[in-house]
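Example 259, ligand BJW.
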Amino acid sequence: MPAVHAAGQIPDDVVRLVAESRRPVVLTGAGISAESGVPTFREVQTGLWERFSAQDLATPEAFEADPALVWTWYRWRQSLIRAVEPNPGHHAIAQWQQRDGVELTVSTQNVDDLHERAGAAVLAHLHGSIFAHRCYECGIPAQLPDAEYDGFESPPEAEGPPQCEHCGGWIRPGVVWFGEMLPADAFEQTAAAVRAADLVLVAGTSGIVQPAASLPLLALERGTPLIEVNPEETELSEVMDHCVRGLSGDALPTLVRSR
Ligand code: BJW
Ligand code: ZN
């Protein structure tokens, strides 16, 4: 069973574990971007999207059934992400990575670029990038101008995706939908980093979606300390050594402060 701590009362030995780690791995999910204003996946959506769960829209079947709806959802989310800023959780990780003597690996399930915008190098985007595009049919990458939606207002109606210059197929976002494989190497590179880590910190993920949710178990097998940062109990909580129950924007700056 994990030791559970409030974000404002993280014991010194947990802060020391972080401060003394030389090869930490940080695994992040949607919760780390929540305080920036990016909705998580298991939240109820609003506007044009309120009848749909993210789980219904993030599939090849949804795109095939209604390309315009799914495309517009992604274009709107791109504009939302462009309109927000990294929060103290992203900044704390970037600062930790820049500390002398620390080789910190960041691997994220997030398709946003907020870790990078905070100054962190990200080893892997396990579920791809929302800003990359490729043809749904032939896979050739496509360059598109930025979406012109207001990031905060849902668009009034759905607009169809552009077509591939090579084969006429629909252009899709460069993300990983349910039932699709993760990008080549992203999982294996993260798994190797977790196997080599002396500490694994998991922040802002429900631990529901596989295979990403299995990565912390590689640390468990090796007896590597595991810390979770999340306001809620998750599917992964029971394998953790420490659970910090709080928002990552509060907990991470405290956890990674230098002693
Ligand atoms: C805060 C906070 C704050 C809030 N601070 N925290 C084995 C068993 C069962 C099923 C499967 C299995 N293996 C594969 C599957 C199927 C499937 C799967 O896992 N399904 C589950 C629903 C059970 N997996 C796949 O299909 C994967 N592919 C695959 O396995 O390929 C092999 C294969 C191929 C063919 C057949 C079978 C196998 C692909 C998964 C792709 C996931 N894609 C998405 C969408 C990406 C594009 C987009 O952005 O639209 O990725 S789904 C969505 O979930 C997104 C996320 O990256 C992912 C994870 O979500 P995350 O990050 O955990 O967010 P939430 O919203 O779930 O949780 C937020 C958390 O934050 C909560 O805990 C909050 O409490 C917390 N929080 N505020 C800190 N301020
Ligand atoms: Zn094509």
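Summary: The CA atoms of residues 107 and 190 lie 6 Å apart.
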